[in-house]
Structure formats: structure tokens, C-alpha cells
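Ticket #331: bound-state structure for zinc ion.
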Amino acid sequence: MDIKYEPPAAMQFGINLKLIEYIPYQIRNSFVSMLSLFRQKSSSESERRKFPIDDLADRLDPSTDEKREFWQKDFGVIMTHDVDTRIGYEYGMSKFVDMERAEDLVSTFNIVAESFEYDISEDFIKSLVRDGFDFGMHGLHHDGKFAFLPVSEQRKRIEDSATRGRELGLPSLGYRAPMLHRTKLMIRHLTEAGYDWDSSFPDTDDSTIGYESTGSRTIFPFYPLFRVGEDWQQSPVLEIPVSMPQDWTLLYYYRLSEESMLRVWKKKMDYIKSKGGLAVFIIHPDPEDFGHPKYHNSYRSLLNIIKKADPEILTCSELTKRWKKKFPPPT
Ligand SMILES: [Zn+2]
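RESOLUTION: The complex was predicted; output attached.
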């Protein structure tokens, strides 16, 4: 079953009234967040997502059992890293690669196509691809403006990121929305630009500003729906839901100790293992997140916890190729 995605009421409210255009970019996030507090209480309990586990879609989906059989082990894990900053690109990435190699593990890095902070080195990317690492596009710019731009500019950013991804010759064309800012037409634009996969929708989102209590409610990949006029169409872009809480969320939103973070990750991963689902992590190589050397030991511990749980470890590109073979996308 596929879930129709509607941006949260506050986001729609701001955008529909065109209020958002008159608010400087720097404070829009807090504006949207403030609106969230005042959003109508119409959303019933069943519409609110539970955090950190919300399995409503999986309970309703008749194909869940078949999806559970996909893995070569009890469950799947994809480690992803969104590279937001210069230090994350120049320092954090290589450190993560070293730590992952030591555990015989590969990951998917999502890089900003035209970052204001770093220039992508094709040789560096290609050498990592040769070693089994994977890449997706983390938007055109990482400036927090995407969801507030006119539709034509949103579409152009997605198209320009695709062009850059193709130039880099990546194993597949994938997308991770900057700051996980999803919009109503994003899936349509990704579909039209020819992306193979997207990984921008958490299963349950408690902390992305403006998107609190949204989420796809599934720990399995799926083909999302998008709107064309009055109708819904199913996209061949494979949605890979972000099913694990981000390092950012646990550090700054919940303000957990590293020990508690590891416990939360283990608990949710154990749950996903018990359901035969896919655990998708976002750990940032940036200095304010797990890219800071002070967190490297905890990152090693996390890799250790993952290895001990004995999942099938994949990249987004590998998963997409195999998933589409087993569950062909709509044509
Ligand atoms: Zn990011």
C-alpha cells in the first residue's frame, strides 16, 4: 500500500496564504514551527505519527509479508550520510569511510550538487564508487530555501541536481531532500527528472521543523504517489524511507547522551529486525554532528552494534536495482 503524502498543515497554511514569501529565509523555519503550534486540532489521534515507531502502513499493507522476504538476512541496513558542510566534505567523509572500511561496511553519501561550501571532486567520488561506496544528490543547494521557492524553481533545482548526478556517472540517480524539506510536487519532479530513488521521507518524523508528526509509516521501500490534477499517479522512483532517528535529532532535539543515542538506535533496529524491514540511518559527517572527532568512538560503537545484529548491508543504489527487479515499478 502506498501512503498519500500531504505536507503538514502549518506548511500548507503558510504557503497557501503566500505569507511565506514575505518572510526572510532566515526566520522562515521558526515561523513555520510557530505555526505548527497553532495548527488546528483537527488531526485525530490516528493521523498523528507515533515516534520512534509507527507501523500503521505496514499493518495495513497486504504486501508486507512479501517485502519481508526480500533480504538475504533477517533485515536490511543502509547507512547514509548527508554531506552538508565543507568540513564534512573535506574531513568527515574520509573519516567515516575509514571507520566503515574497518568494519567491512559501505555507505551512501548524499552530496550537494552546487554547494556554497565545497566543490565536488569527480576523482574523489569515482575512487569511492570503485570501492563500493554510493552517492546520491542532496539537492542543488543546501540553503533551506527549497520548500519556499516557486514551483518552477523547485523543479529546476531538482533537474539541475539530476544533471550534475549524471555528469558524475554515479551508480544510480538518487535524491535526499536538503533538510528533508519535502513538498507536494517533489515526487512528481523527481519522477519527471528521471531519478531512480528518493530517500527524503522518514517513517515517522518528530523533529524536522514544519513537518512534525508526518511520515510514511512504513519501514519498507515503496513506490510513492503524486498528484496530477485531480488524480494520483504512482511513481517508479523507489522511496527508501529514513527509518532510523538522525544523529542530529537525538543530539539536538532530544539532547541525549551518546550512550542513550546508541540505546535508541539499537532498540529501533531490533524492532526493524523483528519485522524484517529496512533500517536507514542518516549520520552527518559534519562537525556539529557525528563528524566531530569527539563522536567518532560512538560512531564506531554504532557500526559495531549494526554488525552484531547481522543485517544485509546495502547501498541505496544496490537496493534500488534489486528491489525494482523483484517488485517492478509501475510503468
Ligand atoms: Zn543536509
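RESOLUTION NOTES: The radius of gyration is 19 Å.
TICKET STATUS: resolved
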